[in-house]
Design a protein that fits this description.
Layout lengths: L16 E3 L1 H8 L3 H9 L6 E2 L5 E4 H15 L4 H26 L4
Antiparallel strand pairs: 1-3, 2-3
């Protein structure tokens, strides 16, 4: 379930791992332990260096921010996981529909 769209446009630069966990925590306004918990729960999967150090991309930060929004709205982590899953599926369907509509009839 990692690579959620979280309402952001994805691309090569947004998915490139740039940040250590301490920087990701500051950018997302959460704690490092929370980020580790979200990873354990399957809400996010950061890249890792060959030495095993977590590295977070702009896409990962967007997911962390979305997790924070959903938690503030009162969802528990199971609810957050379901919402992220449904948002990713919805985004995938929208992209497929856009591709289908752009094809010439025939």
């Amino acid at each position: 379930m990692a690579q959620q769209d979280a309402g952001r446009e994805t691309g090569p630069s947004s998915s490139r791992a740039l940040y250590a966990i301490s920087v990701a925590a500051k950018l997302a306004g959460t704690g490092q332990q929370n980020i580790r918990l979200y990873e354990t729960k399957g809400l996010l999967t950061p890249s890792r260096t060959s030495g095993g150090t977590r590295q977070y991309s702009d896409d990962d930060i967007a997911v962390l921010l979305r997790i924070g929004e959903l938690l503030e709205q009162g969802l528990n982590l199971a609810g957050v996981a379901k919402v992220l899953e449904l948002e990713a599926a919805n985004s995938k369907l929208h992209r497929a529909l856009k591709r289908a509509r752009s094809r010439p009839p025939g």
